């Protein structure tokens, strides 16, 4: 029986831009939020701070929870390669504590970090795709919002 992986993600915005990881494989690039898996015995905040140091080279101040999503790989476009994955993602507003740069342990497919303009997120290959619309409109309300099994 498979396990559900808990993953934390950082939503970092400054001056109308979103900080993202840039990934590249087979001649294609896409973007995702910094973050990753929670380790046993680690709080969500500690996991997110560790992941940000590893991927964007900056500690963060972890703010409120904005979005929660299930990702059940078998239901989405990458089912052929990611079909066994079930991940629960918790996306928090965060603030940088220093300028981002090279992380101490980037993801294997990560080739860098970038700032994307919030107004043009629809033109980018940002995952999960639902964030393109939510972040541009400022959706999320006063509390966390469950997005369901979306990509």
The SSE string, one letter per element, is EEEEEHEHEEEHE
Instruction: Give the quaternary arrangement of the chains.
Output: single chain
CATH structural class: Alpha Beta
- Within CATH, the superfamily carries the name Nucleoside Triphosphate Pyrophosphohydrolase
Contiguous helical run count: 3
Number of beta strands: 10
The count of domains is: 1
The largest sheet is:
5 strands, mixed
Query: Between the first and last Cα atoms, what is the distance in angstroms?
Result: 23 Å
> How large, in whole angstroms, is the Cα Rg?
15 Å
Q: How helix-rich are the residues, as a percent range?
A: 10-25%
Principal-axes shape call: globular
**Runs with pLDDT <50, length 5+?**
none
Strand content: 35-45%
CATH architectural category: Alpha-Beta Complex
Structural class assignment: alpha/beta
Describe this structure in words.
This protein has three helices and ten strands, in the order βββββαβαβββαβ. The chain has a single domain (5-136), classed as Nucleoside Triphosphate Pyrophosphohydrolase (Alpha-Beta Complex). The chain starts with a strand and ends with a strand. It has 151 residues and is α/β, with parallel strands linked by helices. The radius of gyration is 15 Å and the shape is globular. 17% of the residues lie in helices and 43% in strands. The chain has a five-stranded mixed β-sheet with strand order 5-1-7-6-10, covered by helices on one side. A hairpin with a 2-residue loop joins strand 2 (13-14) and strand 3 (17-25).
